[in-house]
Amino acid sequence: MKKQFAVALATAVILTSAVPAAFAQSGAPVATPAVATVDAKTAADAFLKQNAGKYELKADLSDLQYVTTVRTDAADYVRYQQTYGGKEVFYNQVTVTLDKAGNAVLVTSDYAPNLTAETTKKNITENEAEGLALGHTKIKNLASAASRKFGYIVQDKKLVPAYKVTTVSAIAEEGEFETYVHAGTGAIIKSRDLRQKVNGTGKVFLPNPVVSSGNVNLTDNNNADYDLLTNELKTVTLQGLDGSGYLTGQYVSISNKKSKTFSSSFVYNYTRSSAHFENTNVYYHLDSLQRYIQSIGFNNINNRSIVANVNGTTADNSYYSPSTKALTFGTGGVDDAEDAGVIVHEYGHSIQDNQVPGFGNSAEGGAMGEAFGDFLGATYESFLKPDPKFDPVVAEWDAVSYSSDNPPNLRRLDEGKVYPQDWQGEVHADGEIWSQGEYEMAKAFGRDIATRIILQSHWSLTPNATFNDGARAIKAADQLLYGGSHAAQIDAIWAARGISTN
Description:
- There is one protein chain.
- The chain is an alpha+beta fold.
- 29% of the residues lie in helices and 20% in strands.
- The chain folds into three domains: 3-113, TATA-Binding Protein (2-Layer Sandwich); 126-195, Nuclear Transport Factor 2, Chain: A; 198-495, Neutral Protease Domain 2 (Neutral Protease, domain 2, Orthogonal Bundle).
- The protein has eleven helices and 17 strands.
- The strands form four sheets. A five-stranded antiparallel β-sheet has the order 1-5-4-3-2, with helices on both faces. Strands 6, 7, 8, 9 and 10 form a five-stranded mixed β-sheet that branches. Strands 11-14-15-13-12 form a five-stranded mixed β-sheet, covered by helices on one side.
- The two termini are 24 Å apart.
- Residues 67-110 form the FTP domain.
């Protein structure tokens, strides 16, 4: 979302001390949480009504539609959608974070108060809105019927009646767009490509041949095998296969239109010149990351068999689709599916969309999304092959086709960028502000604790969340998980990036 449309009030306030959750995994000592005594929605409703004036809400919450409650070991997260006349105010939401005793510890709000709707009559039909959206996005080959939904979008502090039209092309290069069409005039209010992208191209490699060998001079050689690369192949266990012989399992379902990998003996030994190699590499790394997330205490984050379209586009690009909930990896340069950093980055987008549907609708939210993917990729790589030479960068193998740095990389997580003076208005560049803060947390607390806090914090966010919202949510998550034992360090880490945790 462009900045001029982000006019809703984004508020996040830490309200009370919280009780930390217990984890069996390694990390700082934590206490056992209090047992929840009230229904989370009832408690959240009561708190918002009691504090309606503070958050500029209607006293009876009549324009807040309940969406969902997410329950974790540490806290409950109750989410509401703002409405007008029973229709959504697109992406304007409120979340209430409750400890296990039912106390509200954090409110994050995009609620836009005192809005009036435009008087323009609804002259455009759904079909006409779809046609206007397709004309704007230039999509000619729909993969499925377009989604059309009437509601309102906040613009210049007014509610504009609009159709949200979501179109997915059957041709990857055409994209997947969410387009807002003015319901009165037919004007395109805004349009954005929903696919989360990485500028990369990405067997099994652990995590990639550049890092495992330490050789920064490796080249793609037009996807051909040669000894220096073949020597970097490692034998791993592929867990959770469904027994069909295909690379389909508990947490990953490989799709490759040109190469359907099958083995009746469940042995998948290929060299990197074969597309079956990329299929195997993607399966292993996605499955491993989901198992890691569960190992640190979360069995309700993207716990599904995600479809991965390997070598699904010839572009030097990969992306996550919020509409299909699938990943697609490109073959330009080094095949993206050969680099764990790229694979994990894209899974990061899927995680955030799973925790907060529509996340990244604001400019700062989009930057946080790219940054979280880089944080996941960099810490995953470091876990597989700790080597200071590659710390902290991501996607070294993918980057040999476009980076002249030593080591080659997609992005660094130590650029020293500070908000707001280093803000550029481009999500990947601006993400380097946020990713460094998250990476500094991993250095200070260890990978497990930092990742646990960050994942826990996501449930407190909304689609339009800002850097300040994100930092406050991180501090609240530390309070919930660890009794605030990392609070001072969290304050200092984010202050160094120019971001307040208050």
